[in-house]
Design brief:
2 domains; about 70% helix; elongated
Length: about 150
């Protein structure tokens, strides 16, 4: 049975998300656990984890795609490709530093992200997907190595 406070909290979640966060944090700080909108709080924490994983995957796909473009279209190499590689490596390194438990997940999705990167590289370059190796030619360590660029 939901209390009036629960109904108001849910309403606040639906109508003013930032105020809901502030109110929830205040309740947690003062240990007012009986008046916390637990259902939405749990959902938000779950969403945070999914969002972090999607971000890691997206950054990895971008790095892999630009490494492929760098290697397979050397005549079109640009500062923007290199800058993108640097930026997205930094994002992944920060994510792994903040959450070391991401490292196994990074390894787990590496091959799948490579397949997505091949598809994206093909779309952006006009080269067929068969142009690129079926298996990733770069190690995960190389992908994150700030000195590595394929030739």
């Amino acid at each position: 049975m939901k209390t009036e406070v629960d109904a108001n909290s849910k309403s606040l979640y639906d109508t003013d998300y930032l105020k809901w966060i502030k109110t929830t944090l205040e309740k947690l700080r003062v240990h007012d656990y009986s008046n916390i909108d637990w259902e939405n709080l749990i959902e938000e924490i779950e969403d945070m984890g999914r969002s972090e994983r999607r971000s890691l995957e997206s950054n990895l796909i971008i790095i892999l795609m630009h490494l492929l473009k760098w290697q397979y279209q050397p005549e079109l190499r640009s500062g923007s490709w290199k800058g993108s590689i640097v930026e997205h490596r930094r994002r992944i390194r920060e994510a792994l530093k903040d959450s070391p438990s991401f490292k196994p997940y990074f390894e787990e999705v590496f091959a799948e992200c490579y397949s997505d990167a091949v598809e994206q590289a093909s779309a952006e370059t006009g080269l067929s997907e068969e142009t690129f190796p079926q298996l990733c030619p770069y190690t995960s360590a190389e992908v994150l190595d700030s000195q590595f660029l394929p030739e």
